[in-house]
Every structure is written in C-alpha cells, then in structure tokens.
Write the structure tokens for this entry.
Amino acid sequence: MSREQSSRPVAAVGLGLSMRLAERANHERWPLQVFGYAIVPSALPWVISGIRVSFPYAFIGAITGEFIASNRGLGYMITRFQGTFETRSMFAYLTVLVTWLLSSTRASANWSAA
C-alpha cells in the first residue's frame, strides 16, 4: 500500500470491518487511526441523534430550574409576574419563552438533517 492510499480515511461501513481494515494498514500509530477513522465516524449518527433529542429537554430543565430557585432569568420573571398578578407581563415573557424554545428545536432539527 502506498503512503498516499494509507492516509485516506477508512470508510465507516461497519465498526468491525473498519477496525480490521485499520489493523491491516500496519501503521505505527494504528490505535489513533482506528479511533479517528473508524470509531468516531461510526458513532457520529448516534451522537447527533442524541443531541437532537436531548436539546429541548435540557432547555426545559434549565427553565424549570429558574422557576424553582433563581433570582433572574425568564423562569424567575414569569414566576414573579404571576405572583404579583401582572398577567400581561407574565404572558409576554411566556410568549418569549415558547418562541425561543420552538425556534431552537427547529434549528436543532434542521442542523441534524443537514
């Protein structure tokens, strides 16, 4: 195998096949190449899918934490205006929160589809 061919990434057809191909390349740094050319590319679809699924939950968890124990942020402002019966301000902040959440989830869905 020439040096030019050996520097190309191994196609991530399957992790087992990619690891066997990387071992047969017989390089001095083959564990790093197996990780970089076989393990990472084969794991990327699951990583991206996990990010896409968990992003809205993390966002909701952060806002819920603001509802419970914070003295600033959107969740705090919604709770404060709810307690002082300022309905108009509370719904304004709630609208900002829902718009932000919907736009961020659509952005993450478009990012993962690309």
Residues 4 and 92 are 60 Å apart (CA to CA). The two ends are 34 Å apart (CA to CA). The chain has five helices and no strands. Residues 3-113 form one domain.
